[in-house]
Amino acid sequence: MAVVREFTLPDLGEGLTGAEIVRWLVEVGDVVTVDQPVVEVETAKAMVDVPCPYAGVVTARFGEEGAELPVGAPLLTVADSGVSGEPGVGGGSAEERGTEAPVPSGGPGAGGGSGNVLVGYGTSAPAERRRRVRPANGEVAATTAEGPVPVISPLVRRLARQHGIDLRQLVGSGPEGLILRADVERAIPGTAEPVSEERGVREERGERIPLRGVRGAVADKLARSRREIPDATCWVDADATELLAARTAMNAAGGPKISVLALLARICTAALARFPDLNATVDMERREVVRLDEVHLGFAAQTDRGLVVPVVRDAHRRSVEGLAAEISRLTEAARAGALSPSDLTGGTFTLNNYGVFGVDGSTPIINHPEAAMLGVGRIAPKPWVHHGELAVRHVVQLSFTFDHRVCDGGTAGGFLRYVADCVEQPSVLLRGL
């Protein structure tokens, strides 16, 4: 007798409360093994492949791609029919249904699971090869009055509820009888062509686009920063000609290429060593400023999924070359959507290079719960007084936003002036090496 097990969205750690389904890795009817990834989800911090803690045949999926599910919501159900040859889902043996049964890769003692332990689940069963189980005669099983409705998103449920549509009376046009939003819209009396799901729910006064995933997390964090942090900003123009010359000399000497961002990161760590009040956070419950010993430097990176802030751990212990290598690694991972939650958390100070967008200045919002952020505009040729004469130099605008609770303007001004001095005369850094 088959035992149907329900696999719910697990707690993915880091205090996350939900995730968005990006891509299903299995179909209804597939045979899955213990620890096999079944769905790719996007949390507020990273893309994650979720492994299934059960082995058996997938009998239902809950949620379309793009749907957002809370932790604890059903993801899929798996029918565990036991050993090969026992009755499976829907009755009858595998031979009677014209399907192939799972082929074990080893017996019960052939080794444990992969160790992909999920909160609330344990995994230890041996792996099996994946087989596709197809319904008899290629027909999709009709929805019955009992059991879950086939794989529908919260958006589809809400739309059906608003128009009084009984989902159990619909025949899904998606794979394996999946009920799509288009199926519900066709069942609404007087409805014309279905509205596209690509961009959200279209209403009379424009288009509503859900804030979820990375975009939703960014919105929440920036709004919290504005509510809680009394920030102030100061800025200064600096002649970056010598900094660019130093970078050119470093790269001409051979070895890994040094980026301007890596040089600015090294300047930031040197400045924070001189002004440690700015490498801090505020604990309002205890009414304390917490000065931090380690510098974990975040840097803003724009990706196809939105703005992310990867974190360079122990930046104060790294050389310019070490910073360049780690920034390059994290940037590539961000573009590929392969950053882990640990790569995106724990920052103590942020460097924001908005000059890559071709703009000169900005007043950045502090990355809560940090206390400060340095913004860097584009480096562009401009007229500049150099040694008493007008010359064309490479000039950059630096902006510094800080939490006024951790320091006064004198400290913030001192930090920014030191950064500008290092940009104009990189040899200033030699004093502290």
TrEMBL record:
Region (Disordered): 80-115
Alphabetical list of InterPro entries matching this protein: 2-oxoacid_DH_actylTfrase (IPR001078), 2-oxoacid_DH_E2_comp (IPR050743), Biotin_lipoyl (IPR000089), CAT-like_dom_sf (IPR023213), E3-bd_dom_sf (IPR036625), PSBD (IPR004167), Single_hybrid_motif (IPR011053)
Annotated GO MF terms: acetyltransferase activity; lipoic acid binding
GO CC terms of this entry: cytoplasm
Keywords: Acyltransferase, Lipoyl, Transferase
Pfam family, any one: E3_binding
Residue span(s) of domain Peripheral subunit-binding (PSBD): 151-188
Enzyme class (EC, first level): transferase
Record domain Lipoyl-binding: where: 4-79
Gly residues: bias regions: 106-115
PROSITE patterns, sorted: BIOTINYL_LIPOYL, PSBD
EC number per UniProt: 2.3.1.-
Known cofactor(s): (R)-lipoate
Family: Belongs to the 2-oxoacid dehydrogenase family.
The protein, known as: Dihydrolipoamide acetyltransferase component of pyruvate dehydrogenase complex
Organism: Streptomyces botrytidirepellens
